[in-house]
Design goal:
Layout (H helix, E strand, L loop, with lengths): L17 H7 L42 E3 L6 E3 L3 E4 L4 E3 H4 L1
């Protein structure tokens, strides 16, 4: 039997009121609400917050022998991702596509 998906679907359940449907479905939000966010224990920081007193310790490695920096996207990539060299420098396979 063919089904007409454009035709409106009306059944006897459609005549129920929203209040009756709400009574049948349990309220999932009525349980306990976790106020503290486990992923961010220090709290929520707004953009533009003053972070001038914060120091970051970052170790910067020099370029490795098997790496190159694409002159188009400026990402450091492995030599296996080198597509071709130009007069300006190396181009990765993603940028040449």
């Amino acid at each position: 039997m063919a089904t007409d998906y454009d035709a409106p679907r009306k059944t006897e359940d459609d005549s129920e009121s929203i209040e009756a449907l709400k009574e049948r479905v349990p309220d999932k939000l009525s349980g306990s609400v976790d106020v503290e966010d486990a992923d961010n224990p220090s709290g929520f920081e707004l953009p533009g917050a003053d972070l001038s007193d914060l120091e970051l310790d970052v170790v910067v490695l020099p370029p490795q022998e098997d790496e190159f920096t694409c002159v188009n996207c400026f990402l450091v990539k492995h030599r296996s991702q080198l597509d071709h060299d130009t007069a300006d420098g190396p181009i990765c396979a993603e940028c040449s596509a």
